[in-house]
Amino acid sequence: MVPDTSKMPVSGRDYPRTWDQFLDWFPDEASCIEYLEGIRWHRGFVCPRCGKSGEAFRGSRGRWICRHCRYQCTVTAGTVFEKTRTPLRSWLAAVWYITNQKQGVTALGLQRVLGLGSYQTAWAMLHRLRRAMIRPGRERLHGMVEVDESFIGRSPPNKVRDTKRKQQLANKREAQRSIIVIAVEIKEPKGFGRIRLKRVTDKSEKAVLPFVLESIEPGSIVRTDGSEAYRKLARHGYRRERTVMLGADDPAHVTMPGVHRVAALIKRWLLGTHQGAVQPKQLDYYLDEYTFRFNRRTSRSRGLLFYRMLEQALVTEPVTYDQIAGKTKHNI
Ligand SMILES: [Zn+2]
To answer: pLDDT averaged over the chain?
Structure first.
């Protein structure tokens, strides 16, 4: 099946409607290659080296050879699937599985469902796909947007009696704690729109202002707390609305319901699906995955998510295992 990407993708024509149809469409590697080619080169082959389009002929083993510069490549070259040793059929099945699970999947779950030989392979596949969850050049949030910071990770202990021990534990947990900034579109009369998330080093202006600039359209109303970090918003074309805490007992969910809700959902997701095992240095990619899921939570068609994720995977630069794990080099 070759998808017709000139129009809005249609279920059963551009992406499988069901798992049965998936099995039907992708019996082997050749069918997967053809499908991915249809998505990547829907306007015809474009040479990744010289940029000429339409001037290629098919070589053996899924290769294309550019008539102009003789460059040879396959549909996976320069994408997250580059040099993979895992069959494309497993990759496609992984994307199907990931996009069909509302809460996401763990490496162990993926390994089991795909029958992969190693946990490491499943883990690295998931991490590569997480990098394809953010669409380049995506639209910024607009309208009424709440912005605030939140902590991810366990809070310092308060039940330990021994002060020295308490301090040690507090330091250890502090090192595992991350600060994230959350932006949530607020809909009238109620409900939330899209979100953006980012891990930041601290709550300073230097850390949070760039996040606002890259995530929110100027002209929007940005609702923040009284923090000095947001004082220059007006200078950048935003309308700032401060939510003033009336007293110490004023709970955050009253003044910032969107941020409060999203922060609680992320924490629950990290503790539930991922059992709290996410390390601070990996957190960015989990936040990308959460954003992907949240912003498409109302999507009626899971199959369309499958299609969108493949589209993004094909324009996402390759990442090596080294980059993901900082360990031994091997292709997955
Ligand atoms: Zn070329």
So the answer is: 87
154 or 320: which carries more pLDDT confidence? 320
| DSSP annotation of 228 | G
Structure confidence at residue 326 (pLDDT):
59
Task: Give ion ligand 1 contacts, CB < 5 A.
Answer: 47, 49-50, 66, 68-69, 71
For residue 200, the CA-to-ligand 1 centroid distance in Å is 41
Rounded CA separation 47/37 (Å): 13
Instruction: Give the CA diameter of the chain.
Output: 75
Model confidence, pTM: 0.83
Name 147's Cβ contacts closer than 8 Å, sequence gap at least 6.
181, 182, 183, 208, 211, 212, 216, 222, 223, 224, 230, 259
Residues 105-130: tens digit of each pLDDT = 899 999 999 999 999 999 999 999 99
3-class secondary structure, 277: coil
